Amino acid sequence: MATHYHLIISTLIILSNILPSHQNHFATTPPLPILPLPSYSQLKWQQREIIFFHHFGVNTFTNSEWGTGKESPKIFNPKGLNTTQWVDVAVQMGVSLSILTAKHHDGFCLWPSKYTDHSVIGSPLQDGHGDVVKDFADAARAGGVDIGLYLSLWDRHDYRYGKTIAYNEYYMGQLQELLNK
Q: What is its EC number (predicted)?
């Protein structure tokens, strides 16, 4: 009797491992992803843990949160500007992306824009030949840090702001300058 009992139990164990279970027979497949799926760039953005945002411009020298667009470029006079130091700190902190405000609402450009004199061209920085954006981009590339540039849509300095076609042409020109750095 015991032999028959062991034979029945062994057969049931073998059959339960071979035959599909009742539970698996009714299992549903996982749902398909909901479209659209994020791109590689979007996933990378979500996986970044620390991002630096450098807000540096004429209002750094006026001690005000927002500039008016009426500031003289001559007040932009950073002594000992070292964008490599910014990137070194970013790397030490584990930052994978650093964003620089290339132009904020006051309209002051941290690069020598051919579209306005409200930029480093009119500042004492390297006798009007400075280019904070280029220095920053070069330092970030050398340090292996991705960069972003913030170019404000609002420009409190430029007379074309609010005149759609003229301002859009102006803005697109500045955007092209930055994209080619």
A: 3.2.1.51
Rg (CA), the chain: 30
Q: Peptide bond preceding 36: is omega within 30 degrees of 0, i.e. cis?
A: yes
CATH number at residue 131: 3.20.20.80
Q: Give, as one character, the DSSP assignment of residue 74.
A: G
Instruction: For residue 67, give its domain range.
Output: 43-179
- DSSP string for residues in 116-141: -SSBGGGSSGGGGT--HHHHHHHHHH
The contacts of residue 111 (CB under 8 Å, 6+ apart) are 102, 119, 120, 131, 132, 133, 134, 177, 178, 181
Strands ordered across the beta sheet of 97-103: 51-54, 97-103, 146-151
Measure the CA–CA gap between 136 and 138, rounded to whole angstroms.
6
Contact 58, 67 (CB under 8 A): yes
Helix, strand, coil percentages, rounded to 5, for the chain = 45, 10, 45
Number of folded domains that form the chain: 1
Domain presence at residue 101: yes
